[in-house]
Amino acid sequence: MYNRFLEFIRHESLFSSSHRLLVGVSGGPDSVVLMHLLARLRNDLAVAHCNFNLRGEDSGNDEKFVLKLADQYGVPCFRSSFPTREYAAEKGISIEMAARELRYNWFEQTRTENGFDYIVVGHHLDDVLETFMLNLTRETGIRGLSGIKPKAGKVIRPLLFATRADIESYIEENELDFCIDRTNADTAYKRNAVRHIILPEFERLNPAFKKNLQQTIRYLWQTEQVYRSKIDEVRKKVLYTDGNWVKIDVSKLQHYNPLSTYVFELLRPYGFNSEVVEMLSKLEAGDSGQQFFSPTQRLVCNRNEWIITSLIEAEQQQVFYISADDVALNNPVKLVLRTEKYDENYIIEKKSSVAVLDFEQLSFPLVLRKWRQGEYFKPLGMDGFKKLSDFFIDEKYSIPEKENTWILYSDNKVVWVVGKRIDDRFKVTDETQKVLKISIDKNE
Fold first, then answer.
1. What percentage of the chain carries pLDDT values higher than 90?
2. How many CB atoms lie within 10 A of CB 307?
3. Could you read off the pLDDT of 70-88 as tens digits, one per residue?
4. Are 335 and 306 members of one domain?
């Protein structure tokens, strides 16, 4: 098995002799074999162990075992203890998912803080098959069906060539001690149900099932390479960044079919679910004002583009959106909005609390937020542009006044310094047919 281990590392280009490795060791048979094989290859290793506090005294015993194992190999051991059940309840996720998030977040933190190049974990071939079956029950694309990868970012898996039976044989041949996780027999856990109930049933139907599934996953992995190449090609054509915003050109995107597949892949990194993907796939280019949310992002439809912003950023910067059909805004400034027909008899209200704008010059949704250094606008009646900071100086704004001034934007252009002055580019002219009248609520 050692020679197969070396060949797999070489074939997959997992690491070189110059790389520093942090090895995830639970104390179970997989990680014990991984550590034994790596120690035969080199001695500049370090162990990382997670105590999830899920199995009472057994969790503490596992930690003691790993400490002793690291001492036997003469390598450092990093440890962390997690309140896994509380974390799962707080996040509203399963215990299994909570443990995974805690483990890999801590692994990465430990890796970066201590200068390791890679995190090494003990997944094997049976894990690949089990993960495939689990992903069939989830909302996943081809990525979720193409198997666990030998190298993913800074995580490497040198045992993916070996089956569970291979690992058990290696343990017996080398008389290795390991910890027994009694929860591995509990089919209340999804992975255990796949391992002990579902896969054996498929093997009963066809004894070659595991071998065939392994080959199918290889084919899917190759297919994904072609698929991913095309997705990346389209992404470069339709998606771009604008400061902290991500924008997708819908007029270009809608030329690709099947549209929902491209939408799914473009939005997947931002956490949008399939329901949002389907709704967006049915929208026409030019639709404006609709907003969609993932746990971390907001997507705003703005004519021929979708704008994706961070919810955290929007919260911190207090960004508010105004759609073309909105009639009022209650926060952070109380505004009344009215769309009116314009003709020669229209009387423009000349008050600083009222903005009368050429509707056709506006791009929705409008954005209401605080000003930023370096921004400029064209004050009504002026021929040239002026920095907002200079405008505030001219208007003798105090620091608190400047900090509490709200600016209305259209397509990143200043429309109105709220309560003070509109931008000349959005004023009503003889060509205007419809106006948007925005008034600060008198009760504000």
1. 63
2. 18
3. 999 999 999 999 999 999 9
4. no
297 by DSSP, 3-state: which?
strand
Domain contains 396: yes
d(C-alpha 55, C-alpha 81), whole Å: 13
Under DSSP, the state recorded for 283 is P
Closest CA to 25 of 14, 33, 17, 13: 33
Confidence of residue 285 (pLDDT cuts 50, 70, 90): low
Give per-residue burial for 244-256: e unless 16+ CB within 10 Å, then b: eebbbebeebbeb
Give Cα separations from 221 to 40, 224, 225 (angstroms): 31, 5, 7
pLDDT band per the 50, 70, 90 thresholds, residue 387:
very high
Same domain for 243 and 149: no
Query: Is-contact 72 50, C-beta < 8 A?
Result: no
What is the band of 317 on the pLDDT scale with cuts at 50, 70, 90?
A: low
**309, burial (CB in 10 Å: exposed 0-12, middle 13-18, buried 19+):** buried
Q: Are residues 193 and 271 in the same domain?
A: no
Tell me which residue range forms the domain holding 403: 318-440
CA-CA distance, 391 to 188, in Å (whole number)?
Answer: 66
Mean of the per-residue pLDDT values for the chain? 90
How many Å is the maximal CA-CA distance in the chain? Answer: 97
pTM, 2 dp? 0.59
